[in-house]
Structure of 2-oxoglutarate-dependent dioxygenase DAO:
Amino acid sequence: MYIFLLTFPQKYYIRKMARDGVPVIDMQKVEGLGEELVRACVEWGCFRMINHGVAMELMAEMKATAASLLDLPEEIKQRTVHTEQGKGYVERNQGTPFFETLSVDEISSPGEFCDRLDASPHQREVIYKYIKAIRELAGLLGRKLMEGSGLAGDLFDGWCCQLRMNKYHYCPESVGLSGVGMHSDPTFLTILQDDENVNGLQVVDKYSGEFAPVDPVPGSLAVNVGDIAKAWSNGRFCNVKHRVRCFEPKTRYSIVLFVLGPNDTKVEAPSELVDSDHPRLYVPIDIKEYRHVRTSKRLHTGDALDIFSTTAT
């Protein structure tokens, strides 16, 4: 049994819980939702959402659309290749031989992505509807995280978001291996629609250091907290390390929304989260610069934040 004391402006929580799995949070909860989300971000850096408002039918259609686009001929998918790492189409390679991905790099303008892939009217409609629903959910999360932190406002208003569609080409030879190796996300948070039929996501319990499974729950969505959220929260939130393992030779799909950060300002902890007991840990961070540093120095498990520490020399 663990006991945690979580301190935010004007708010104090004592949390006692057994470390028996990541939290499952009902997004239709009226009282205390913000505080519950904050606790999950601090204790785990990961949680599942139920009653989140994204229709199951739309989720199923989005999975089918992602699968159909990822099944397109290679020469068509190559039309969306981007020169910047982490954007556009990423084919299977030596580092990730079972994994490929397509992305809408800025969800406010998905038309170019659809045009390059010659997406059908139905595929476009599904992508547009899904982006609208998942972005609205991200907005709710941002407002509730502010509320739970003793703050007010729309945290993610105007922030850049990316939608990714992933395919894991699992086969008998991949069983026991990683589709994606251990990493933290270079984001504020990640909203994941995982494959309800094929599990594999594992997160690191920050207290034990052991991997904990995040098994799929039909109709739910998972959230991972990233490096930028740790910086914004002045070190309180856990930028959870995680990986995707292959347990059976079945193709796995996932759809991910990355809430990256603001386009035109740097991310820094609000003054309300800085005091004598919690001195400022990080300098203001430009998200593009952060991603570049993280990639160029191959610091994929959150260590890049140390370079942006207020005490870095």
